[in-house]
Amino acid sequence: MDKAAPLWKWILLFVLALVLGIMGYGLLQSLAGLVNNPILTFLGATVLLVLYFFAVKLIERTEPSDLPAERIASDLGLGLLIGAVFISCVVGLILALGWANIEPAHFTWKNQFSAFMLFFAVAVGEEILFRGILFRWIDERWGLAYALLVSAVIFGAMHIGQPGATVWSCFAIAIEAGLLLGAAYKWSGTLWLPIGIHWAWNYVQGDVFGVAVSGSDDAPTFFNTIMSGPDIITGGSFGAEASIIAVILGAALSAMFLYLYFRKTKKAGMA
Length: 271
What we know:
About 70% of the residues lie in helices and about 5% in strands. By secondary structure, the chain is mainly α. Helix 3 runs antiparallel to helix 9 and helix 6 packs across helix 7 (about 190-210).
């Protein structure tokens, strides 16, 4: 959206984009819940990406730059790696501190595939809404600092209705995920990287380690991770996302992405 556009027009189109994003994500969630079919869930998420592409062209009168086809494999793959390593480090440190035990669990590959596709849909829907619309529009109009702050706060606050949620868990999500995903989006310039991080983070946490994902922990898993330490370390019933370890690692990773972004823009300015 042109930053020189009148404020009233910017607000009107921004609200329209948000409403469409919320409706699209809501329909995707309803589809996933009703059909319970991993292939249809994946196709639904793919359709939502296509709709986002055309909505940007229609509302903003510009070609979307954050869904480059040539970077799907590289950015999505990097995101999956970062998300998996990140949450593995969080759980691993809790285990190393002696405040959790891990044991095998019973699972089926069918359930794992369903969970993998479900978390893809969650990542797509939330990243379109919070990074593709909320973060990007504010960034283009008001700047990076405001975009990071507003998108992170709202992203954290939306988790208040989850089981076991507290003010602390919402703050933790805002810092370790809201800032991290916004910084990753800004550095990469694509939605593929934050989608990959978000996707792997949720799947590995919930369906590999068996840790609650934002308070929900009823999925079949590879392992059962039984937390026994203080909530500030383990995250309590909300899950490892509410651990101070996740907050510290997420903040550090956010700072790294921002450093890489500013270094890249500085080099571009000197070229």
